[in-house]
Write a structure and sequence with these properties.
heterodimer, A: 532 residues, 2 domains, two-stranded antiparallel sheet, 59% helix, 2% strand, elongated, B: 57 residues, alpha+beta
């Protein structure tokens, strides 16, 4: 052997290993087997082309920052390109997946290719999900407040906190795209190295007299194809696909734009529905609100936390990771800010803090009942006279603080200069009826199959149809543990999608359904001709 | 007039949501269009003939 064949340096050895593992003529062949003769084969490259446009438009959005597209016409158009290319990505990926299933494309040591492809689909759903959460508009607020229940029920809500906009943005623009692109690259490399799966055995009548070696009747999927080939320019196909997707997304973006419903704020809530705000604030103060009784990861509430089955609760196992004392966080601490310049409020807060628990409950209970007939005079709440202690004054001050926007700021402020964690304001908003009312008008509620929907008339996350389906049927429809149970079911179904090549009934269906005969009909015709 | 047409289409998507509601099932018209389009595209991809090219052994 020559010195060239046996490199003595690490660099040379790496080069030799790389060339052995990834031979260029396999990675970028100029021909494909003759059976690659169906439009079904273009959906893979259309998916990749869509991903190219998604990443390109996403990079532009990242460069100009997360708020740019809300205030700039060009930014909004780039966001529209991002939205429509993401829709195209899922559109073509789903069809690609259907096609590969009907071809039983995992045959001949291609199970890993299928498994990584299916994982790409799941990674893409996670990437798109964090994208919706990063929009910083009403849609992202509502998705975050609803999705938190599923994630908390599965025990990962504190680590993957969907209410933390900054955290979701990093997942969306860096971590998940890296994972997704890496998976796509490995998937493509495996497709190129293993080759495109050959047709299922032809079902010919009688014993064929002769066989055309170019079109074998029963091609072995595990052996490299030696039959007829056709010219196939992969790079030209990719460039053309990127051009088509660019054109389609530009046209869709220009005509239909993209949705951007303005976000709900506590100030908007307190001005639009002050009575609902006060009822919610009192429930936070007396510890009866949704957040106050939520359980892990926010509060230590006996028995709270959804169970997957029996008393198995991933939420309780994960524990209280984002401790939230609703009275302190949503009422007392924010009020301490205006109290610095308001001696009356300072005295009211001191009186409330020094009172016994039973005394506090009496005041909040009385005031809560009185709110049923609250009216407003010059913006201030007016209730029938009663024993409210300092609560009436505190609530009046809190409403004023909320209406001015001060409560939005107070809940966002965490003692740090940069603020990206919206956990507190979103928890408070989701405890009231205002946010839900806005969502209902946009058909975003759970019983409206809202998980699939987008604000306005835009297509939403249609790929979540199965996930939202479970919430519509018994026993999940009325189950207190629906989030935990449906997450468990979807985790199992996701695993099943990845493991299709190993599932006895599912992997046999493509042969029975016979769609493959249509996909490879040209090939089977040739086989029939040569066999006749 | 041309711009007015484009604005009209855009406001159609941004305006009052259109939904199909049958019993417990509900779907937005936009999502339904996308799903039907996917099925149509898949069927067309199977049915339509793929351009033939010169073959070589």
């Amino acid at each position: 052997m020559s010195a060239h064949d046996k490199p003595s340096t690490w660099t040379g050895r790496l080069r030799r290993s790389a060339l052995r593992a990834l031979p260029p003529d396999r990675l970028l062949p100029e021909n494909q087997p003759a059976y690659v003769s169906s439009w079904v084969y273009v959906f893979g490259v259309l998916t990749i082309a869509s991903l190219v446009v998604v990443v390109g438009s996403g990079i532009v959005l990242v460069v100009f920052g997360p708020t740019w597209w809300h205030v700039s016409g060009i930014g909004h158009f780039v966001n529209s390109l991002h939205l429509w290319s993401a829709e195209a990505f899922f559109f073509f990926m789903a069809i690609h997946l259907w096609g590969k299933y009907f071809m039983a494309a995992w045959r001949g040591r291609r199970a890993l290719t299928w498994m990584i492809g299916a994982t790409c689909f799941l990674a893409a759903i996670a990437t798109a999900f964090t994208g919706y959460l990063s929009q910083q508009n009403f849609d992202s607020q509502w998705i975050a407040t609803q999705a938190k229940d599923g994630l908390n029920a599965s025990g990962i809500g504190s680590v993957f906190n969907v209410l933390n906009s900054g955290q979701m943005l990093v997942w969306h623009v860096l971590l998940l795209p890296l994972v997704l692109i890496l998976l796509v690259v490995v998937h493509i490399l495996l497709v190129r190295l293993r080759g495109v799966v050959p047709p299922l055995p032809a079902q010919t009548k009688g014993v064929p007299e002769e066989e055309n070696p170019g079109y074998p009747r029963n091609p072995d999927p595990a052996v490299e194809w030696k039959g007829a080939k056709r010219r196939y320019d992969l790079i030209k196909e990719l460039v053309a696909a990127v051009g088509v997707i660019m054109l389609v997304t530009v046209v869709l973006g220009a005509i239909f734009s993209s949705p951007d419903e303005r976000p709900a704020t506590i100030a908007r809530w307190a001005n639009a529905e002050p009575a609902d705000f006060l009822v919610t604030a009192v429930s936070e103060l007396d510890g009866t609100s949704g957040t106050a009784t939520y359980g892990p990861p926010y509060t230590r509430t006996a028995g709270a936390g959804q169970n997957v089955f029996d008393s198995f609760s991933p939420a309780r196992l994960a524990g209280v990771r984002i401790p939230t004392d609703s009275a302190q966080v949503f009422v007392l601490r924010p009020l301490s800010i205006p109290a610095k310049s308001d001696p009356t409020l300072t005295a009211a807060l001191a009186a409330y803090r020094s009172a016994s628990t039973s005394q506090r409950r009496l005041w909040t209970g009385n005031y809560g009942k009185a709110l049923a007939k609250v009216s407003f005079s010059a913006g201030a709440p007016v209730v029938a006279s009663g024993n409210y202690g300092p609560v009436a004054l505190m609530m009046r001050a809190l409403l004023g603080q909320a209406r001015s926007g001060g409560l939005d700021g107070a809940l966002l402020s965490g003692g740090r200069f940069y603020q990206t964690d919206y956990t507190k304001p979103l928890l408070l908003l989701s405890d009231g009826a205002y946010l839900e009312g806005l969502a209902q008008r946009q058909n975003l509620l759970g019983d409206q199959w809202g998980m699939m929907n987008e604000t306005g008339n835009y297509p939403g996350q249609a790929w979540l149809w199965l996930y939202t389906f479970w919430y519509q049927v018994p026993p999940f429809k009325t189950s207190e543990n629906a989030d935990a149970q449906i997450w468990a079911i979807m985790a199992l179904l996701s695993l099943a999608l990845i493991c299709v090549p190993f599932l006895p009934v599912i992997r046999g269906l493509p042969r029975r359904l016979g769609v493959y005969r249509l996909i490879w009909r040209d090939y089977y015709r040739r086989v029939e001709r040569s066999g006749g | 007039m041309k711009n007015a047409g484009i604005v009209a289409v855009a406001s159609l998507l941004g305006g009052k949501p259109h939904y199909i509601h049958v019993g417990w099932f509900q779907i937005s018209v936009a999502n339904l269009v996308v799903i039907v389009l996917m099925i149509v595209v898949f069927v067309l991809a199977i049915v339509l003939p793929f351009p033939r090219e010169r073959e070589k052994r």
